[in-house]
Write a structure and sequence with these properties.
The chain has 2 domains: 101 residues, Urease, subunit C, domain 1 (Roll), CATH 2.30.40; 313 residues, TIM Barrel. It contains 14 helices and 15 strands. The strands form 2 sheets. The protein has an 8-stranded parallel β-sheet with strand order 5-6-7-8-9-10-11-12. A 7-stranded mixed β-sheet has the order 3-2-1-4-13-14-15, with helices on one face. α3 links the parallel β6 and β7. α4 packs parallel to α5.
Amino acid sequence: MLEEKRLTFRYLLTPQGWLRDQALVVDAEGMIRDIEPASGPWTGTLALPGIPNAHSHVFQRALAGRGEAHRGGDSFWSWRREMYRLAARLDAEDLYVIARYAYGEMLAAGFTSVAEFHYLHHAPDGARGPEMAEAVIAAARDAGIRLRLIPVLYQRGGFDRVAQPEQARFIHSRVKEFLDLLAALAPYRPGLGFHSLRAVAPQTIAQALPVARRVIGDSVPVHIHIAEQRLEVEQCRKASGNTPVEILLDAVAVDERWALVHATHATAAEFERLAGRGACVVICPITEACLGDGVPGLKPWIEAGGALALGSDANTRLDAVEEMRWLEYGQRLARETRACLADGTGLGAALWRRIAAGGAQALQLPLGALAPGRAADLLVLEADATALRGHAPPGWVDALVIGGSRADVAAVYVGGRRVVEGGAWPGQGEVTHRYHDRMIQLLESR
C-alpha cells in the first residue's frame, strides 16, 4: 500500500480549468485527497487526467495487421470471420499473454483504466468456468492498469438466427449459466454487458438485468454494442420493424449507468432520446475506421451535452491521443467544417476533459478528473515534447491532439504510482518477446 504523497506540477488541467503551481495530495489508497499550492521540486510540467478506455476486446490485439488482403466484399462481416478463427484457438494462457502485452501498451498509450468487454468465455474444449476471465484479470493486475471487467451475455447468431458453431465459446444459452459466471467474478466488481440486440433478445435483457444486478450490485455499468453496422440496422428493422436503439430504449430503463458502444448509425432523434436518459455513447474511431463502420453523426449528441467516451475496441493501434484526433477529424470530414468538439478556448482541453469524464461515467468509477475524491490516474507532459515545441502552455493540449501522439507522454500514473516513464513500462522487454513468440506459434498452428 502506498503512503500519502504529493505530486507537484507547474500546470494541472482540472474540471475548473488550468491551475498553476499545484500539488496533488494522494492518499494511501491512490485517491486525490486535496489540491494545494506548490513551489517545487516538480514531478512534471503538465498533468492531464488519464483517459479511461471505455471499450476493449483485448484478445483482438492479436488480429492487428491480419485479414487485410482484398478478396471482394470486404467488410466488418468478412473481418469477423478472421476474429472467429483467432478466438477458436486461444486458451487461458494465450489470452493472458496477449492481454498482458496489450495492457502494457495501453498504459503507454495514455489509457489508465479499461472496460474490458469480455465474451471469450469458455475453454477451447467447451468447459465452463471463470478461467478465461481470470486470465484477463491477472494480466491487468500484472500490467498495473485499472480494470472494469464487463462479462457479456451472448446467446444467438443474429436477429433471426441461432448461434453458429464458431460462436460456441461466447454463448450462454441459459441466463442462469451466465449469472453463475457473474457470481464467480463478483469479488472483482465486474460490470454487465449484453453483446448486442443481434446476440440477445430485448426481452431477455429486460428479464436478466434486475437479476444480474442483484448478483453484482445495482450501481454497476451496463454496456452494449448498438447500431454499429448499416446491415445490422437493416436486419433489425426487417426482424422487428424498428431500429436497435429504439427497441432498446423501449425495452429497458436506459440511464446514466448505460454505455452504448459505437451508435454509428443512430439517428439524430435517437441521440436526442438517449441524451434525455443520461446514457454515455462510446466511440472507437480507429477500429470503426479499420472495419469500415462509418462515422456517427454526433452533432445532436454534442449539442445536447451527451456523455462521450473513447474505446480502443479491437486494439489494432493503441494511442489515446490518436483516438481523440480521429474522433474530431471524423466529425470534420462528415460535416465539412472544423472545431466540431472544441469550445471557445480551443479543442484540446475541452475535448480531453469531456472524454475523461465520459470514460469515468462509462466505467462507473471515480476517475476522469484531477479533483479531490478521484483516483490519481494521470498523464505527464513536458515542454520539450515534440508536439509541444513552439507552443505556450494554454495551447499545449491543442497541439497534442492535433499533432501529437503517445510518444509525447513523459509518464503515466495509476493510483498515484508511476507505471510508465518515457514510453517504457515494467517488464516490457520480456512481455513483448513472450507475446511475439506466442503469436508466431498461433500463426503457425492455423
